[in-house]
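Forum > Structural Biology > Help requests

Title: Can anyone predict the 3D structure of CPNE7 protein?

Hi all, first post here. I have the sequence for CPNE7 protein but no way to get a structure on my laptop. I'd be grateful if someone could post the structure tokens.
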Amino acid sequence: RTAATMGEAPELSPQAPLAVLSKVELRVSCKHLLDRDTLNKSDPCVLLLMQSQGQWMEVDRSEVIKSNLNPVFAKIFMVDYYFEEVQKLRFEVYDSHGHASVGTHDDDFLGGMECTVGQIVAQKRVTKPLFLKYGKFAGKSTITVISEEISGNNGYVELAFRAKKLDDKDLFSKSDPFLEIYRVDDDRSEQLVYRTEVVKNNLSPIWEPFKVSLNSLCSCEEKRKLRCVVWDYDSRGKHDFIGEFFTTFEEMQKAMGENKVQWDCMNPKYKIKKRNYKNSGVVVLLDLKIHRVYSFLDYIMGGCQIHFTVAIDFTASNGDPRNSCSLHYINPYQPNEYLKALVAVGEICQDYDSDKKFSALGFGARIPPKYEVSHDFAINFNPDNDECEGIQGVVESYQSCLPKIQLYGPTNVAPIISKVARVAADEERTKEASQYFILLILTDGVVTDMADTREAIVRASYLPMSIIIVGVGNADFTDMQILDGDDGVLRSPKGEPVLRDIVQFVPFREFKNASPTALAKCVLAEVPKQVVEYYSYKAFPPRCPQPKTPDSDLSSPQ
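Reply #1:
Sure, ran it for you. Structure tokens for CPNE7 protein below:
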């Protein structure tokens, strides 16, 4: 994956291949679904599955739409798009019964469809028949998937709507209103952007604020027409039309700050029939906030420094460093695996750190003067300043500390993760995107303190840091894959999930015969995404963002 290699960008030219991979928004609708319910129509829900190592894994699922055989789902599925990979997707439609989990009973299965992300992206809109088990057609059922690529510098907007004095459509109670926003495309077709929740029994509802990307709201064009429709919800799927109004994102922006914008909610039929008809209520935009989405380059160019810490495993399982079979053996003619991994990753990170000073720590050894076991000692033996000058300084400290220490154990890495996390937590309090921390852990075996390590990683996922673990030597590293949340979400022993996936684990042996850049590319590929995810979550902008006028930001093609 050349998602975002930091590797090839010593000079930060704008063309440096640093842009985070594309994200694609997928919207789904179905037609002529099978009717599985005897009394009313099916209540469809869509599951999106992605193939990973030959297994189908659920990525996300849509909302359930009550009693509707031609549903248009409001849920937007977000998928990472890699140009150079075949990414297989499977959409499965189920009739939901609310109580049981969706997708458990065959009789609730309304059909499935398989395709690739590439096909949807290339065609922009794919309509395919739905199939039941064993390749049988699900009647005339079809599914349509529409894709939109989100450009890197796209922003999103937060909107808060309410309505006043809506028409009452119900006999014995008040209307149950919800609002839909449609974008009117160049071919006059309409694309559902958002559907609010239903507010029960209320003619002056206040809907929950929501976020949509500017791309999906108005294709980043402020003057694009938007149609907003208010409905009275009906549990049988026959919603009553209350009224509609047309607007643009340009007009909506008048609601920034203290201002509010309002529209008459009109029912065209009433307008023709009723002489004194004014409106069917008014809809008010209470608040609008625009959020810019920044790229990794924006942060780096804004002065964000990448601070690099290396942690080296000095446990006895490495073998006596004086013995040529030891993983720590210093061969004058060829660097050992620890040094190879350290140099490959460190050389790239040093381009992003202006002072070129790296913290270098060791764990699992008995250290002078008292020869007590330490799991977070400075390999330059300076407890007040564990930093070395450049990668060369780390290499020299490593070589000179080996004869002075006694390799011991166990392999505890939680103390070092927590140590870097404390520094990252101090940085977080500045509320600026000024320093991001990368911890490279080089180890020859599976960690002993797995529960503490999982806990430390969950804590660290809330801080400006990423962890790269390189497994050195020929041990069985199967258990280490748990820490790399790619196959599922890493959780603490108490079950708390990580906020972000911040760990990348690779066995060095897979790169033994490859060039050092291949290892660096692999372990650093995720870092730009992790940096952007952290600062986006915190809503920290780059420190000196590139000067841009608000207009050019939105409407210029990225």
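The longest helix spans residues 414-428. The chain has a mean pLDDT of 86.
Shout if anything looks off.
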